[in-house]
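[PROTEIN RECORD]
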Amino acid sequence: METFVIGLSIGSILFMVALGLAIIYGTMKVINLAHGEMVMIGAYTTVLATKHLGFNLYLCIPLAFLVTAAFGYVIERTVVQRLYGRLLDTLLATWGIALILQQLIRIHFGLALFGIHIDGLGSDLQNVPVPSELQQAFHFLGANIPVYRAFIFVMALVLGAVSWWLIFKTRFGSQLRAVSVARNTAAACGINDKRVNTLAFAYGSGLAGIAGVLVSGFKTVSPDMGTPYVVDAFLVVVAGGVGHLMGTLLSAGILGEVQSFVATWLNDVYGRTVLFTVVILILLFKPQGLFVTKSR
């Protein structure tokens, strides 16, 4: 049971990261290789807020969302917006942004060049204090379940529900879906597709930032921590079906459980190997992913 819960928490993190990636790709057809760095920025926002502002983990969640959404907004407006329709250029540009963000953390956003060092930044590993109530465990079906793991799962469900409401029940969501299906037609109907792109990119980045907050509670924070998450998030999006919320949720859960059980029985290396094997098998039998959005 403990292994199953760990798998749920891994899947929940993957879902939050992949959901933002799926929204960005589904709307703009842009593969954002800097998406993992939004996880990293969210984690470092938590480190700095707890060290210098006295925030607890709960307060860091909305703060990290705003900070990473702002990063996403600036990246889209200054770089990505100029590269639409140029897939290779977008890949190279976002990969370059990812490397720049990692190095900025290492050099304290350039202040280290002047001998100024900010506690919480740099190449050293950082840890985030978790509220005492989240450090507890409860008994369920004969197993001790860490409260923090359950909290991550609940947060994933909440963010999934909020994203579903935003996409399917709001005016912005209608515009988002219109742009993702037929951009030129949507623009001809008066929808500002550039504004939709920017807000979608910012929202997707914000979701990754929240994932970074939650990851920082059980893993050490480092400048390169986001890179593995962007790879796993791509696997989730591809396996679940591009642009399908339920497919993203289901594939994140499956891949999280596979990685958890194999890593527990064998080790992390085998866990990663089996994870990639499962994705390959899914794509062999379901080339468009577990779910396919039907077009009319």
Remarks:
- The mean pLDDT is 86.
- The chain is about 70% helix and 5% strand.
- The longest strand covers residues 137-140.
- The two ends are 43 Å apart (CA to CA).
